[in-house]
Amino acid sequence: MKNKTKYDLEEKIINVLSNLLKEPLYQLFTMSSGTLLNAEMNLANEKMYKETLELVSKNTKEIIETIDIFINSLNDEIEESFNLGNCIQTMTKLIQPFLKSNNIFVHINYSYDIKIVGIEVKLIQVFLNIINNIIYILEQNKTLREKHIFIEAKSVNEKVEIKIKDNGGTTKSDDKNSFLKNFNISKKIALARKIVKEHFFGNIKIYDEGYSFNNKMFNGRVVCITLN
Fold it and tell me: Tens of pLDDT along 65-79?
């Protein structure tokens, strides 16, 4: 079961990696091909060469950073101290293609100095499972004009508290408990709970909440992760 979970995560990361690399590689191909064609027709100039080199430099750096994230994510056997903010940023970059394709905006607020001891890729897996669930919920709500995910992390009483909430709406009061129960026992959430409990000695709670953002009222679920 452990190996299957590891391979499932690796497959997910590989798929995300291919999507992340396609855009910068396509831009490199398009820009360089256009510059070469213009050079052959004696239409290229210094400005065009400069713009092409700048794009090559920028996209090459982005590709290298993405590959580094991928390699580090596969190394899930090392238990060490890592920065929570960097972990959240890594996860966000991995899911960026899905957020972009679904028109979902992510808002992140965290303390920069929070350190956690454990296996970083395990926490990334927790985030991925929760966010996947939330993306599904946001897509099911066809009345939403805008879709948001909020991620907040802070230290509370010598523990780390991470809240991930959405604006997917709540259900009717008579169906609320049933809905939350279904959300709670989904395979992705169940796996996230298991990882948090076994690897970070924490827990996950889920509840509905109303809040204001940009002078608008929203309702949604809050996934509260507590790490000891």
Answer: 666 666 565 555 568
